[in-house]
Design a protein that fits this description.
heterodimer, A: alpha+beta, Ubiquitin-like (UB roll), DNA polymerase, domain 1, 2 domains, globular, B: alpha+beta, Aldehyde Oxidoreductase, domain 4, six-stranded mixed β-sheet, 21 helices
C-alpha cells in the first residue's frame, strides 16, 4: 500500500509501486480532470502538483509520492475561485479543453513562485504544455490577468 | 474498409416533415415530441415542462432546456446552436441549460448535411442555422398563444422580453415558467416561417461579445467529461495491439506472460489485432507490453514508402497524358495555355499529416443481447450507430450513442476504428461495459492521415501578363472512395473533398481542374480543412508566382482577379492595411494568401525572417481578416481562426508522417512535432461580420492561407526562392535556397 495525500485527503492505494501516478489518480481515485496525453512527459496534460511543484503524473511512479501532498485540478480550489480559473473564464481560453487542466496546474506553479511573471517568463514556463487547438495566446493573456488580479 | 458516412436517404425524406419549402420561404412543421418518443436525456428535461418541439423544454421554474444536436470538440457549437434557439424564442440566456442530443438523426440530423448527425466540414452552424432559429420562433409563438388565452387578450397585443410575455396595455406579464406551469399546448400547434424570425436589429444574443461559452466553466475545474473520462459500474478496461503494418493479421500469439499480469481478465484475438481486457488501464497496458505476437506478412501496403510515393505522385501530376476526372472545366484551358506567351509551371507536394487530437482515440461500449450502448467522443453519432451495429452483429436502431465532449476532433473522430475496438471487446464480456483507450503511440501510428498529395499547376499568361488559362492537377488517394463510396461513384470518381479549394473564386478565362486518383491501399481521412489545406497552398503560391512573373504586386493581382466580389476584396484590402503591406521590413518580408473556404472569406499576412545557415523559418507576426457572414459568437470566431492559424503553421513548418515499408516511423510527440507556445508568432485576427450574409463555417477557414502566406513571404524575402513542399523543413529550405 502506498499512502499519500490527494487534495488534502489521506489515501492508501494498493496499485503496484511503479504504476504511473496518472492512472492511479484517474482509475482508482476517480479524479478525471488530470488527462492522459502522451505518457512520456511531452505534452503536460497530466500536470499535477507534488508538494506544490508542477509534475507530470504520467512519468511519476506511485511510490514516489508516498507521504507527499498531491494536488490535482479538482483540488486547486473548491469552487473554481483560483485567480487562474477565474482568468481562464474571463479570457474564454478553452476550446476543446482537454489540455487545460494541465495548463492551469502548470501556470499555478509559476504564479506560486513568481507572482508577476513577464510574457517571456510565462512562455518559457508553459512551453512544455501542448495545446492542439491553439489557445496559447489566450493562455498567456489569462496568466497575465491572473497575475494582475491576484 | 467500411463504407460509412454516406447520406441517409431515409433521414432526408423523413426530414421533409420537419422542414418543408413553403410559399414564404422555409416553413417548419414542428410537432411536439411526446415524452415517450424522447430519448431519456431529453425526456428528463421535459418532465413536467412544456415541450413545444423536440428542441425546447420549459420547466415551471423557468429553466429552459435546449438540445444541442452537434458534437462539441472545441469549436463552440454547444453554445452557438442553442443560442440560435434562444434568440428567436426570446429566452433569458441565464436560465438556459444545454442538453446533448441522443443519436437520433430523424429528429436531430443536420438538414444542411445529408440529414445525419455528423459534426464536420464546418457544416454545423451553416446547416442548422435556419432550423434552430425557426424552432425558437415557433416556441415563441406557442408561448404567446398560451399567454393570450391565459390573459384573455389578443395575441397581437403581446410582446416578449427575455423570459417573459408582456401585455403593455394592462401592464401584466407572464414569465415563461409561469406559462409552462399552467399552460398546455395549443391545438393546432402554431408554426413558424421565415417571416417570424427576428430582424438583425432586434437580436439580443447573436453577434455579441459578452456571451460566454457554456462549456468553459467545466473546462477549468476538471469536471468536463470527455470520452476518456467515462466511468460506469463494473466497467472493464481494454487495449488493442495492432500490427505495425495495417492489413496484417495476428498469426501466432504467445500470451502466457500477458495473462499472468495481475488484473488481466481476457485476451481476445481480433481480425486486425489482439485485444486485452482487464480491471485497470495499468493492467491492460502492462499486459500488452508482455504480449508476443507474430503477424502475417501479406498486407498490400507493406511496400508503402511515403518519400518515394511523393515523388511518384509528382511525376503523375506532370505527365499530362495521364487523364483525370474534371472537377471544373471552364473554357479550354490546355489550348489557352498552349497558345500563351508564357507558361508558369509548378509542382506542390504535401506530406501525410496526423490529427494528433490531444485526447487519444477511445470509446466505451456495453453489449447486452442484441443491443449496444456506446459512450464516445464521436463526431458522427449516426455513423457510430452503424459501426457499432456491424461490430456487434446487430442493426443500427439497436445502438444507442452517448456523445461526450471531444478532446479535439479535426475529422479523426468521424472514423470507425476506435468504436469497433470497444464494441468487439465489450461483446466478449456481455453485460459489462469496456472502455478502450488508445495509447499515444497507437494514435500516431494508426492514424487516418490527410492524403499525401501532389499538385501540378500550369498557368498561361498573354503578352500583357494576363492569365489566359489555369490548369490544376491534384494527385492523391481518395477519402470519399472509402468513406462515401456512393457519392464518390455518383460524382464519377471525383473526390470533391480532396479537390476542395481548387475551384476557386478567382476569375480566369479558362480553368481546368483534374483529379487523378491514386490508390495506395492505405486509408486516408478528413483532416482539419481537408482539401483546402493542401490545395490552397498550390493556388495561393501560384497567384504569387504569376504576380512575380508579371511584375505586379500580389495584392493588386488578387484584387483584379476578384473583381466584382466585394467581400473577397475587402478582407484582402483590410489585412493588407493591418499589416502595413507596402512598408519594407529589414531582414523580413510579408506574404499574403486568401481563401473563400467554407462560405467565408479569409485573408492572412505572415511576416517572416530566415536563418539561411540552418534553413529555419522564423515567423514573427500574422495578421488575419475574416468575414464570417453573420457572426453568431464573434469572440469565439476570433479564437477559432487564431487556433486554426496555429494549426496551419504547425503543419506547414513541422508536421510529417513518414512511412517506410508500410510502417509509420513517428510514434509520439517526440517524433511528431507540434507547434509549441514559444514558436507562436504574434497573431492579430480581425472579425468583420456581414450580418446580411449567411453564417460561414469558422472552425477551419483560418487554416488554409497561412502556409502559402509563409511560402510567399519567403519568396519575397529571398528574391523568388519558392518552397513547394509541406512541411518547410530546414533541409528543404536549404535545398531550395541552394537552387
Amino acid at each position: 500500500m502506498t499512502a499519500f495525500s490527494i487534495n488534502g485527503r489521506a489515501v492508501q492505494v494498493a496499485a503496484e509501486p511503479d504504476t504511473p501516478l496518472l492512472w492511479v489518480i484517474r482509475d482508482e481515485l476517480k479524479l478525471t480532470g488530470t488527462k492522459y496525453g502522451c505518457g512520456i512527459a511531452l505534452c503536460g496534460a497530466c500536470t499535477v502538483h507534488i508538494d506544490g511543484e508542477p509534475m507530470r503524473a504520467c512519468q511519476t511512479p506511485l511510490d514516489m509520492v508516498a507521504g507527499r501532498q498531491v494536488t490535482t485540478i479538482e483540488g486547486l480550489s473548491a469552487d473554481s475561485s483560483h485567480p487562474l480559473q477565474k482568468a481562464w473564464i474571463a479570457e474564454q481560453v478553452p476550446q476543446c479543453g482537454y489540455c487545460q487542466s494541465g495548463q492551469i496546474m502548470q501556470a499555478a506553479g509559476l504564479l506560486a513562485s513568481n507572482p508577476r511573471p513577464s510574457r517571456e517568463e510565462i512562455v518559457a514556463h508553459m512551453d512544455g504544455n501542448l495545446c492542439r487547438c491553439g489557445t496559447y495566446d489566450r493562455i498567456i493573456r489569462a496568466v497575465e490577468r491572473a497575475a494582475q488580479e491576484s | 474498409m467500411t463504407p460509412h458516412l454516406q447520406p441517409r436517404t431515409t433521414a432526408l425524406s423523413r426530414r421533409s416533415f420537419l422542414v418543408t419549402l413553403g410559399g414564404a420561404g422555409i416553413a417548419v412543421a414542428f410537432a411536439s415530441a411526446p415524452a415517450l418518443l424522447l430519448a431519456p436525456e431529453v425526456a428528463q428535461a421535459a418532465a413536467g415542462g412544456l415541450v413545444p418541439n423536440a428542441w425546447v423544454t420549459i420547466a415551471p421554474d423557468g429553466t429552459i432546456s435546449l438540445v444541442s444536436p452537434a458534437a462539441e470538440m472545441g469549436q463552440g457549437v454547444k453554445t452557438a446552436l442553442p443560442l440560435l434557439i434562444a434568440e428567436d424564442m426570446d429566452a433569458d440566456w441565464s436560465k438556459v441549460r444545454v442538453v446533448q442530443a441522443p443519436s437520433d438523426a430523424e429528429r436531430y440530423g443536420n438538414p444542411g448535411f445529408y440529414g445525419i448527425q455528423l459534426t464536420g466540414g464546418s457544416e454545423t452552424v451553416r446547416g442548422y442555422y435556419q432550423l434552430l432559429r425557426l424552432a425558437g420562433a415557433q416556441t415563441r409563438k406557442v408561448l404567446l398563444a398560451i399567454a393570450a388565452a391565459q390573459l384573455g387578450v389578443p395575441v397581437g397585443e403581446l410582446t416578449t422580453e427575455p423570459g417573459r410575455v408582456v401585455h403593455a396595455g394592462s401592464g401584466r406579464a407572464l414569465s415563461y415558467g409561469e406559462i409552462a406551469a399552467t399552460g398546455s399546448l395549443p391545438d393546432p400547434l402554431p408554426q413558424a416561417t421565415e417571416a417570424d424570425l427576428k430582424p438583425a436589429s432586434q437580436w439580443r444574443y447573436i453577434g455579441r461579445h459578452d456571451v460566454d461559452r457554456v462549456d468553459v466553466p467545466s473546462k477549468v475545474n476538471g469536471t468536463a467529461q470527455f470520452g476518456i473520462d467515462v466511468d460506469l459500474p463494473d466497467m472493464l478496461h481494454g487495449v488493442v495491439l495492432r500490427p505495425p503494418v495495417p492489413g496484417e493479421r495476428p498469426e501466432r500469439i504467445d500470451d502466457a506472460a500477458a495473462k499472468a499480469v495481475k488484473g488481466v481478465t481476457r485476451i481476445v484475438t481480433l481480425a486486425y489485432g489482439v485485444g486485452i481486457i482487464g480491471e485497470s488501464t495499468d493492467a491492460v497496458r502492462r499486459a500488452r507490453e508482455a504480449l508476443v505476437v507474430s503477424w502475417s506478412n501479406s498486407s498490400r501496403v507493406r511496400t508503402y514508402d511515403s518519400a518515394s510515393l511523393a515523388q511518384a505522385y509528382r511525376e503523375v501530376g506532370r505527365d499530362l497524358a495521364q487523364p483525370g476526372v474534371p472537377a471544373r472545366a471552364e473554357g479550354i484551358a490546355p489550348a489557352a495555355i498552349a497558345g500563351a506567351t508564357r507558361v508558369i509551371v509548378a509542382d506542390y507536394l504535401t506530406d501525410l499529416v496526423h490529427h494528433a487530437t490531444l485526447e487519444p482515440m477511445n470509446a466505451t461500449a456495453l453489449v447486452t443481447g442484441d443491443t449496444v450502448e456506446v459512450w464516445a467522443p464521436t463526431q458522427g453519432p449516426t455513423a457510430t450507430q452503424r459501426f457499432a451495429a456491424e461490430a456487434a452483429g446487430t442493426s443500427p436502431d439497436k445502438v444507442k450513442v452517448h456523445t461526450t465532449l471531444i478532446g479535439g476532433g479535426f475529422g479523426r473522430r468521424a472514423e470507425d476504428d476506435f468504436i469497433t475496438d470497444a464494441v468487439l471487446l465489450a461483446k466478449e464480456v456481455e453485460g459489462q461495459p469496456v472502455k478502450v483507450v488508445w495509447s499515444r503511440e497507437d494514435d500516431v501510428r494508426h492514424g487516418k492521415y490527410r492524403p499525401l498529395a501532389a499538385q501540378h499547376v500550369e498557368v498561361g499568361v498573354d503578352g500583357a501578363g494576363n492569365i489566359v488559362g489555369w490548369r490544376h492537377r491534384v494527385v492523391a488517394d481518395s477519402i470519399f472512395a472509402r468513406t462515401m463510396p456512393e457519392m464518390f461513384k455518383g460524382d464519377g470518381g471525383l473526390d470533391t473533398v480532396v479537390t476542395d479549394g481548387t475551384t476557386f473564386n478567382y476569375r480566369v478565362p479558362a480553368h481546368l481542374v483534374e483529379y487523378i486518383r491514386q490508390d495506395s491501399g492505405r486509408d486516408v481521412g478528413f483532416w482539419r480543412a481537408v482539401g483546402y489545406g493542401q490545395n490552397n497552398f498550390g493556388v495561393e503560391c501560384m497567384i504569387d508566382e504569376v504576380a512575380a512573373a508579371r511584375g505586379v504586386d500580389p495584392v493588386a493581382l488578387r484584387l483584379e482577379l476578384l473583381n466584382g466580389q466585394p467581400r473577397a476584396q475587402k478582407v484582402i484590402e483590410a489585412v493588407a492595411a493591418m499589416a502595413d503591406w507596402k512598408r519594407p521590413r529589414e531582414d523580413r518580408a510579408l506574404g499574403l494568401a486568401y481563401t473563400d473556404a467554407f462560405g467565408g472569406h479569409c485573408a492572412e499576412v505572415a511576416e517572416v525572417s530566415l536563418d539561411r545557415e540552418s534553413g529555419e523559418i522564423r515567423l514573427h507576426e500574422v495578421w488575419c481578416v475574416v468575414d464570417p457572414g453573420v457572426a453568431i459568437q464573434p469572440r469565439n470566431i476570433e479564437a477559432q481562426v487564431a487556433g486554426a492559424i496555429l494549426f496551419g503553421i504547425s503543419h506547414a513548418l513541422y508536421e510529417q508522417i513518414n512511412i517506410v515499408a508500410g510502417e509509420v516511423q513517428e510514434t509520439n510527440f517526440d517524433t511528431y512535432r507540434l507547434l509549441r507556445m514559444s514558436e507562436m508568432p504574434r497573431i492579430h485576427v480581425e472579425v468583420t461580420p456581414t450580418p446580411e450574409n449567411k453564417p460561414a463555417g469558422i472552425g477551419e477557414v483560418g487554416l488554409p492561407p497561412i502556409g502559402p502566406a509563409i511560402a510567399n513571404a519567403v519568396a519575397r524575402l529571398t528574391g523568388g526562392v519558392r518552397l513547394r513542399h509541406y512541411p518547410f523543413l530546414p533541409e528543404r529550405v536549404k535545398a531550395a535556397l541552394a537552387g
